Amino acid sequence: MSRLSFVAGLLLGALVAAPQAAPIFHPGAPGAPARAISTDEALNLARTTFTEDDVAFMQHMIVHHGQAVEMVALLETRGTTPAVKLMGQRIALSQEAEIALMEDWLTTRGRPIAMPDMHAGHGAHGGMDHSAHAGHAMPASETPLMAGMLSPAQMQRLAAARGVDFDRLFLTGMIQHHQGALDMVADLLAHPDSAEDSLLSDFTSSVVADQSAEILRMQNLLSDL
Asked: What is the SS3 assignment for 123?
């Protein structure tokens, strides 16, 4: 091998081993030039591209998902149809994973997980009713904690049902629940500058795709009962 070929080989090897990263440019203010920023700066900027509507959406959706997990817990002891139970298990696994994602999203951005206006005692499930005070029991409210969720009275009727009757109520309630999540996404996207955060954008797209498909599957299961 000639000396020239040897040197050329060394240079080529160095270029392959240490590729140059493409620069990242951050747009300047109107009239100001863009500037090159580091990867860490780009990640930090990405975490700031959220609005108060985004934060409220995530906080609400955590509560919304939590009630779905509670409904599946009831299904495990009260339901009877294997296909419905399997559907419920899949829903619980996906919603628990999404709750963890949403909690991490809020924590990473320095925002509280719980909504500041959530009443103490509702927790993440939204299935409890606090209309009984000082020993005076009152009927459970038919008003849900938020649109799309089951009301305390609906949760009581679900918990009291057994067998196929439970399965029907579960599917009907979960279809309502999933539709509520779709409505929440649509409401968020109607706000200017919302869901521009890349992770949140991916999450809302996943909610729409997954829960729309699950609604169709649950409607088919319900028609077979």
From this structure: coil
> Is the Cβ–Cβ distance between 145 and 64 less than 8 Å?
no
C-alpha R_g of the chain: 25
End-to-end CA distance of the chain: 79
Residue 184: φ, ψ to 5°: -65, -40
Distance CA 10, CA 28 (A): 40
Across the strands, what pairs with 35?
A: 26
Length of the chain: 225
Average of per-residue pLDDT values in the chain: 79
Handedness of CA 81, 83, 84, 85 (dihedral sign): positive
Cβ-contact 95, 68 below 8 angstroms: yes
Distance in angstroms (rounded) separating the CA atoms of residues 202 and 191: 17
From residue 127, how far is each of 111, 132, 149 by CA, in Å?
25, 14, 9
| 189 within 8 A of 203, measured Cβ to Cβ | no
H or E, element range at 25: strand 24-26
38, pLDDT greater than 90:
no
Phi/psi of residue 142, each to 5°? -90, 5
Identify the CA nearest to 71 among candidates 148, 183, 9.
148
pTM, entire model:
0.71
